[in-house]
Amino acid sequence: MNGANISISSLMIASLLVIVSLLFSYFQKLKLEKETMISVVRAVVQLIAVGYLLEFIFGLNNPAFTTLLVLIMMFNAAYNASKRGKGIKNGLLISFVSIAAGAGLTLCVLVLSGAIRYQPNQIVPISGMIISNAMVALGLCYRQLSADFKSRRDEVETKLSLGADVLPSSVEIIRDSIRTGMLPTIDSAKTLGIVSLPGMMTGLILAGTSPVQAIRYQIMVTFMLLSTTAISSFMACYLSYRGFFNDRKQLI
Amino acid sequence: MAQIKFENVSYRDGENTILRSLSVDIEQGDYVSVMGPSGSGKSTFLKLCCHLISPTEGRILLDGNDIMQQDPIALRKKICYCFQTPVLFGDTVEDNLLFPYSIRKQNPDREQIDSLFSKFHMPPDSMKHEIKTLSGGEKQRIALIRTLLFRPEVLLLDEVTSALDVDNTLIVENAVKAMNQEGITVLWVTHNPEQGRKYADKLLTIEGGKIAALEVLR
Fold first, then answer.
1. CB contacts, 8 Å: A165 with chain B
2. Is B212 helix (H, G, I), strand (E, B) or coil?
3. Is the separation of the CB atoms in B79 and B156 below 8 Å?
4. Which residue in chain A has the smallest CA separation from B98?
5. Is B173 left (phi over 0), alpha (psi -120 to 50) or beta?
6. What is the rounded distance in angstroms from the CA atom of residue B182 to the CA atom of residue B172?
7. What is the pLDDT of residues A70-114, one digit of tens each?
8. Which residues pair with B62 in a beta bridge?
9. How many inter-chain contacts (A to B, CB under 8 Å) are there?
């Protein structure tokens, strides 16, 4: 293998590996042959489509179009995160604002520091990483918020009945939810290089970049994931807790 | 003018009607025991008084003004509700007793804390005690002290002694009676008929979401 250049003939030979999987399924009567074929065809078609699409976008090299693409990614992520928070009022809007703020600020710092350039081939994959990370974090935050407002109802009502406003009555729950959203990112940062060689670094090494160079990118990725998750989780929790109260400051 | 006036108040939770057309007057300084079978709507009655929930029909007047027109936070500082199972937060007794001061952005009044400690028979060094080391009776007394730090006008007690032993119950009963004598209105939900009649001026019986009887005891 030379860098990231895989020839079509190499791919054809590699596709024989699918047959191995099919043979196992057939002889072990796993009845997974049809599923395997569908998944392989889907993977190939989807990847070819996204490959040509990205090639087209990278070729355009139009900042406005790149921004539009990033906004679409943010909207999709917000839509998915809001589905995780069924009890969250205005979940879609709050998720979009939080993800946009977290990812936007991180991208600004990365571009202004010169770590990356505002070009589609850099902005699009980096945005994908931070936006999807923020999406997962928000889903966790929402689940924790909804669960805590249910299970810690007496605690919240005790604080309300002592004359506290809705924020001091909920601040512990908000903090716990932000923590829940951020912990997976912090934990995975802790084990980087020990347990996992992350996708971006692996990709760079496969493409021929020296490992010492590749870790620089991975360090940047770690920083940007931490900041995006922190900002997005913080904003989403502080924007959504009020939805658990009515305008008479009663827990719904 | 009644301090708390219920005018045909109903409360529905979804399809479930918990209170129906309740009308009652509570005068300032009253000591009212609220009794009735489980699920009859006693706790709902107390939660309506301190506006943790709003009536679905009818209206509640506080000193002549509709509760819905008043600031809920200011109102709950005057009318305080104590839960059957005390909820203490943070790690120490101090975390709990400083909370009412912190939400009012005031410095703690040590004299007031000490005076309530002695009323509720808590040792003066209790402030630093960890919550997990407290007995059930001590937890309930701390929860009551926390409610009384800023001398509410009305004290709503929801079966606060139901899990306490005889000694702890007596301490709480006497302290509450003393607070009532100082002018605080007391509404006490209890299951214990003896406790219900011990100090109360009035005995309000709620059954099936309706007032079954209002007895004047003294």
1. 73, 103
2. strand
3. yes
4. A162
5. alpha
6. 15
7. 999 999 999 999 988 777 889 999 999 999 999 999 999 999 998
8. B4, B65
9. 59
